[in-house]
Amino acid sequence: MTETTAGPGPNPAPAAPGRAVRAEAAPGRAAAGAGAAPAPAAAWTAHPSGLCALAWSPDGTRIASGGNDGTVHVWEIRGTSAVRRFTLLGHRGSVRCLAWAPDGRRLASGAEDGTVVVWDPVTAERLSTPQRGRRWVNSVAWSPDGQLLAAAGGDRRIEVTDARGRELAPSLDSPYGVFLSLTFDPGGTVLAATCRDSAVALWDTSDWTRRASLPAGPGSVWTVCWWEGHLATGNAAGQVRVWDVDVPGSGTNARPAASGASRGRPAPDERRDAYARFTVDGHGGAVARVTVDRTGTLLATLSHDQTVAVWEVRSGRPVWRLTDAYPGWTGCLEASPAEDLLAGTDASGQQIRIWPLRPEEPAPSPRGSLHTRVNDVLDEVLTAARHDGRHLTRTPLATKLVSRIPELVRPEGWASAALERSADAGRTVLLGGRVAVSDPEALGKSASLSGSLLVHRGQAWIRSTARPDELYAVDALAEGPPDPAPAGEAPAVELRWAAPTVPEPARVLSDVLATTLFRSWSAWRHGLVALDGAGHAVRVSAVHLPGGGLRVRVAADRADHRELIAGLVDRRVSRYNGGTRALRGAASLPLWRPSVLQPWDEGAATAWALDDKDLPEDVAHRLALVDEQVDDERLRQERLVLATGPTGPTEPDVQIWHLPEDLAAAEELAVLLAGLGLSASFGDTAPERLVAGGRTARTCALLVTPALRTWAGSPLAAPYAELTRTTEALGRRVRWLPVSVDQAAMPDGLPDHLHSFDRYAHGGADRTTRRHNLLALLGGVLIDRTRS
User: Fold this and answer.
1) Could you read off the pLDDT of 532-555 as tens digits, one per residue?
2) Residue 657 domain-assigned (yes or no)
3) Looking at residue 392, what is its pLDDT?
């Protein structure tokens, strides 16, 4: 048994002024700013390789921690110190999740090696390995009675077993991509899970039927937390939604949080047991973790903007906020079930820190006039963004809003949201996932980025990814196809939705192109023909029906393409319409190859686009993968628009550190990243330029080739040490990603700070491997551990 004691850690960096909170259930009241975070009550180094998972024991006396090295430590908490009681060995990959059984006598761990292990936390005995052969495990959860153990992860399914591995339920397939988190309700009657969908899926544990889904987006829902009477979720847009929940038979009321349009009232659909309480829009990045205190009155959140924040459950009011709180690749944050304590990691990703949840004194309310406060918020966000290397601009909407402050009751949330999620891109302004056109005469109304097209109510399109800032008005397109339709017709699948229906036909067509399965296309007002790399054609028509319904027809040379695209359209349009599936029938469409075709982005085709070899044999998994690709391609287009605008970011997303002899490999990687919408700098070998660039780059990638055999003697070691010293002195840190080229081994003597991060690969023997490696690296740069 190894013992390690630790006392109180150093004071954290002072929290930056909190972003505005939109507490939609409390109209008419501006949210007060968050106070400074309390000093940690304890801090100790737990995993030099990097901390990946945390879990409190039910009695609050022990903490289990999981690391990048595959180890699990069990710590006994003694006031302001901690003693390591056991180290549990058995995983061969990063431990990504931990869960104590309700009786505290068993501990479950899930890891990247695809296994779930159950341990005795008192004797350190490995009791069983109930699940094996998974494609990494993101989340594990025990039922309240300790009889069920659910685990979910990268294979897009949830397996429910007992502690010995006996299957107690059928595999629960993901409705939309990789599962990210799961939890049981307090009564054990419902299992909730989140994935790369914008909803939370709910299963009835009595018969494992899918009972409902809660609209918790926009974007992927990263985390879910359920306690007596309430449920909270965190999404990719930086929002936390809190729901009142009513689950019959469990003694729990489960109701989702209301939107601004329906404050406190039931949602206008079949979700009878979910009522919205409020939405907190207080983070600038995806909310990766939500946890609740023992009384159910405080929520703590961890976001990819690298902040930890605490909020009141009743009102959504921010209590305190800690910036630069964690390194971005872990999702460790857990409130104690027995005391008012919060455990998380530090900025190095190696320490466990414990904070008091409730500060001794409440944070003072902001002072000054409403007009002054909003201007201060805007200026603070601009300053912080410039410090982080992000390019933001005060949009005309935000400027107009400030000028109208005296007329507004709750301006802070609106002003902050209008600014934080905006950026210039030529003649357009990206605004919270929307594109507000600054030249109305040229393009008309606002638009949403969607794959190869920029569409909103059929108003504007992006012509190609090569020049994403070139927009074309849909109204300027021809009513019909460019060539006369041939006489013959091909069989087609027809999908119909009754009124009212969203989205517009142009959005349907953009989703088809955003699959990236097609290399050229021709589009007109309500239809398109697209060709894959082998010249196989797909035709899609989408028109509004009288009364507002929607009709989509899909024809293709290949039956599997026809079924895939029809299934995709049905899935996505149904999602836009609260789950209402289409009426499906048979039809026909002329199918041909137009004489004029627009090329898809050739630069990204080999590295990013899907082809038949990338599609799984299983039909459901194939559909899920293509569905995910549509959203990923939309995000890529968004990055491309921002990167190519004349006033876009001047600092690189990635600075590539490499030896002089590896210049060609660095340039190849930079070109691939550019195709993904990430700017990369390379070629700098002078130490002073490496250090200067590293201070401003979002990420530094270390290119590992056979030429880099040892670290100590390399020309990169000294500038790396200098950069580490200067950034730590500024209270910042640089995210490092070691990238191995063609399986080159890591150099001897690589610093622990580099070792603790994920390792990535570049290149590979075949296209599928190269694509997989590139996507993993993209996820690392974007601080996304889902790696689908």
Assistant:
1) 999 999 999 999 998 889 999 999
2) yes
3) 45
Same domain membership, residue 676 and residue 621: no
**CA 784 distance to own-chain centroid:** 6
- Stated as kind and residue range, the H or E segment containing 728 is helix 717-729
CA-CA distance, 188 to 290, in Å (whole number)? 20
377: left (phi over 0), alpha (psi -120 to 50) or beta: alpha
Between 366 and 490, the more confident residue is 490
Among 8-22, 640-654, 767-781, the minimum mean pLDDT is found in 8-22
Q: Which pair of tokens denotes residue 669? A: 């990687």
Higher pLDDT, 406 or 116: 116
Q: What is the DSSP letter of 343?
A: E
Tokens coding 252:
């729990």
H or E element: which one contains 757? Answer: none
Which range is least confidently modeled, 111-115, 314-318, 402-406, 474-478?
402-406
Instruction: Write down the pLDDT at residue 783.
Output: 59
Write out the E strands in 387-432: 422-425, 428-431
Q: Are strands 209-215 and 351-356 parallel, antiparallel or unpaired?
A: unpaired
Tokens of 477: 């397109």
Q: How many whole angstroms separate alpha carbon 354 and alpha carbon 39?
A: 9
Task: Please give the C-alpha separations between residue 710 and each of 245, 470, 741, in angstroms, as whole numbers.
Answer: 57, 47, 16
Asked whether residue 371 is domain-assigned, the answer is no
The answer to whether residues 497 and 550 touch, using CB atoms and an 8 Å cutoff, is: yes
Tokens of 623: 């559909």
Same domain, 741 and 612: no
Q: What confidence tens digit (pLDDT) does each residue in 256-271 have? A: 333 332 223 233 333 3
Same-domain pairing of 658 and 605: no
Q: Comparing C-alpha atoms, which of 737, 749, 752 is closest to residue 708?
A: 749
CATH of the domain at 607: 3.30.310
| 403-408: Cβ within 8 A, 24+ apart | 405/370, 405/371, 405/374, 406/370, 406/371, 408/370
The answer to whether residue 127 is domain-embedded is yes
- Distance set, CA 553 to CA 494, 576, 715 (Å): 4, 18, 60
- As a whole number of angstroms, the distance between CA 108 and CA 130 comes to 10
The pLDDT value recorded for residue 6 is: 41
Alpha carbon distance 657, 677 (integer Å): 19
- Tokens describing residue 338: 């027995």
From residue 778, how far is each of 627, 739, 771 by CA, in Å? Answer: 18, 12, 10
Q: Looking at the domain assignment, is residue 96 inside a domain?
A: yes
Collect all residues with Cβ–Cβ distance below 8 Å to 484 and sequence separation of at least 6.
none
Residue 524's pLDDT is what?
Answer: 84
Q: What distance in Å separates the CA atoms of residue 230 and residue 311, rounded to the nearest whole number?
A: 14
Contacts of 48 (CB under 8 A, 6+ apart): 350, 752, 756
Q: How many domains does the chain have?
A: 3
Largest pairwise CA distance in the chain: 82
pTM over 0.85: no
Task: Give the separation between CA 159 and CA 139, rounded to whole angstroms.
Answer: 11
What the block records as the tokens of 391 is 């390019």
Helix axes 717-729, 687-696, angle to 10 degrees: 40
Residues 297, 319: Cα–Cα separation, whole Å: 11
- Read off φ and ψ for residue 667, nearest 5 degrees: -65, -40
Q: Strand order of the sheet with strand 287-292?
A: 35-36, 318-322, 307-312, 298-303, 287-292
Pull the structure tokens for residue 436.
């507000």
| Co-location of 182 and 291 in the same domain | yes
3-state secondary structure of 531: strand
Q: For 184-205, what is the mean pLDDT? A: 91
Peptide bond into 218 cis (omega under 30): yes
For residue 711, give the 3-state DSSP assignment.
coil
